[in-house]
Amino acid sequence: MRKYKLGYTTGVFDMFHIGHLSILRQAKQYCDYLIVGVSTDELVQEYKHKTPIIPFANRCEIVKAIRYVDEVVPQINRDKIAAFNKYKFDVMFVGDDWQGNALFNEVETYLKSHNSDVIYFQYTPDISSTMLREKISK
């Protein structure tokens, strides 16, 4: 396993669960310093058309408390190329549910041309914040 210096991943991290923890744990195994972008409430509303259960500031505090996380930053848009240009990470971690997506193919090509990699982690199919919302609403 190659060890990178600076890693980056993002998420909403609403109703923090084992799938979230798994991605952060795996990411930290690959890098010395892990930056985690937490989606703002406005961004989630914009692209998922729903408001997170847990407010942005609280989600940031939860993610900051995870021992695998070195820094938490707000994710105000989904532009991964802009994030790369700002943070200069050598690896970005993404759930494999995005692998093959046209947007991520473009991002992956751009990152590779700038000596940065994309590592896809297996999506946790039996848990998600959406599933938790559904269980709670029943």
From TrEMBL:
Protein name: Glycerol-3-phosphate cytidylyltransferase
Taxonomic lineage: Bacteria, Pseudomonadati, Bacteroidota, Bacteroidia, Bacteroidales
EC number, UniProt record: 2.7.7.39
Keywords: Nucleotidyltransferase, Transferase
GO MF, any single term: glycerol-3-phosphate cytidylyltransferase activity
UniProt xrefs under InterPro entries: Archaeal_FAD_synthase (IPR050385), Cyt_trans-like (IPR004821), Rossmann-like_a/b/a_fold (IPR014729)
NCBIfam families in alphabetical order: cyt_tran_rel
Keyword Signal: no
Name of the top EC class for this enzyme: transferase
Keyword Nucleotidyltransferase in annotation: yes
